[in-house]
Amino acid sequence: MRGWLSRKLWITLLAASVAGVGAIDLFFLARSKAFLGSGFNSEALGGPADMVGFVVVAAVCDTALLLGLWALMRPPVRLLGLSPLRELLVVAGLSVFVPVIVNSILTRLHMILGDLIALESLFSLSGGDALGAAEEALATTALSLLLLIFAVALALLWLLTGWLERVLDSGSTGPTTRRGLTLFILSALAGVAVLLACERSAPNLAFGLRWKASGMALGGLGKELTDVDRDGLGLLSRPADFAPFDSERHAYATDHPGNGMDENGLGGDLPLGADSPRPVQGPALRAGGPSLILILLETFREDLLDLDFGDQPVAPNLRALAAEGASSRAAFAHTPMTWTSRGQLLQGRLVPAPGHPTLIDDFRAIGYQVAWISGQHDGLEGGEGLGLSGAHFFRDARDHIELRTTPSKRPISLQVSWQTVVADTEAFLKTRGTDRPLFLCINVVDTHFPYDHDQLEDILPVERITRADIRRSDARRVWEAYLNSVANVDRAVGRILAAAEAALGDDFAVVVTADHGEAFYEEGFLGHGQALDVAQSGIPLIVKGIQGTWPEPIGLADLRGLIARDLPHARPGGGPRFLSDPGRRLFQYMGSVEHPHRIALRWEGRVATHELADPPPREPSPDFDELIHAWESVRAGGDTGR
Questions:
Q1: Range of the domain at 56
Q2: Is residue 204 within 8 Å of residue 198, measured between CB atoms?
Q3: DSSP class per residue in 117-181
Q4: pLDDT digits over 280-309, tens only?
Q5: What is the per-residue pLDDT across 167-186, written as a single tens digit (0 to 9) for each?
Q6: Core-most of 58, 261, 450, 477, by most CB within 10 Å?
Q7: Same domain, 208 and 296
């Protein structure tokens, strides 16, 4: 018996590791996804048979992951000069820690942000700052506690090996390199086969596997192995490659109009001459108009203007500005992400790209002074399409690092308060030293996650929160703290308008809008960038001092053309007439337009949406086909004529 234990100890340890990882993952899935069938999530285990099935398929995937981690970790651990038994235990412990920390991070993110978030979403929210995304993820996790638990467990195992080495022949405690590699390859292939089978016939099991570290790793491997035609999609991709041997046909393929072939499998062949949902096109901006103050609000919902907290207006200055001018209740971000939204606004394009002219170029070309003042770091990926280098005066959070409201100086996090932004604005307007008309863009960011900091004023009688308080179980506290940040931003708008009036008299127009909205767990999610609903993509649009007829629904990409058309004829006071246009369509997308996660098309009073990971409807409606053709037309370059 003793000899058998010695020879098979690594098998016993592997089995224990698989069981431990499986149990911990199941706990995390039950806690974050209600995966054991509590009713919150529709993709849950349905009974004992599902439970047994999931345990088995998860064990196959976890075995492959752990064997792979063993193979990676044994060479560096061997350099420590440990006894064979202790070497094996250290390798096993480190290998178990990897999936545990991944799932702990995902669970904590879910508790804060809701049930749609994933690590790739956090990266996209970070503006391309990979290290910042990792920092944000780790900041949400009790990492010190996990490290402590791991250290204690490793210490106990270390002590246990002393006893084991006395009772066992520990000279052979692990598989040979060749055997280990063979076992890993076989288990990885089995894991990929399991994932394929679950995706096809057991969607609830596939859902659970996608949220396990082993499922993520094997899913990526399976995608590469099954991408036979090397078009970037395989049988485990979402969406799956419906033509695995034809690189010209897949869900993201360009659909060439009128060739009789439906290259992406959606909506049939793109008709020749299909109408693209273009933004409003205006003439080149001409001189003769007033100054323009463009106020960009960060993470600001469209439903806040009329909101009261008790008997106190949440945004009295914005409400008054809307009454003096005009406001739209059908304004949307085409892509509810900061950098893409800014590019769409400034370039007047649905698909902004570096090198295209912007509003900054328009105003410089006709002799305006251009200034940009921002409460965040405006050097992240995506900023190159805004034309910020053309501003005569520029300030952002990098100029006030010592006044930052965020613990970190990383670009993804760096912000300063509205007081700092207002102080910069007031100082600039007092000392700008020219009587040229002005285009001033101001970005106020205090309404961004985590919605509270120590430089906010207590305008509303709400309980202040810390980052640790932000979780779905405290949704009301989070919402109320957000409203107090809204009230602070509204106060900033009042101060900015007062400073502009003191410097410019009444010879200026104002446009106030936002980059995107924010969900507060209405559909189980906190944040933005996950859906194209009103909560996340609806935005305020307030205009004073510019007249004309502005169509609804209206998007950020429409503003450049409308400003160019109507600002030269503007007069003080009043605002445009927002007019609903039954024939108007507004296109929205999440991700890149070439590989979107979701797409939507809005008309007056209705919307069609599609998530690309989902199969198309069995009986597509005319609205669905029109949505697909709109996306295909935009991809083909029909997003703007400028």
A1: 1-225
A2: no
A3: --HHHHHHHTTT-HHHHHHHHHHTS-HHHHHHHHHHHHHHHHHHHHHHHHHS-TT--S--HHHHH
A4: 999 999 999 999 999 999 999 999 999 999
A5: 555 554 566 667 777 888 88
A6: 58
A7: no
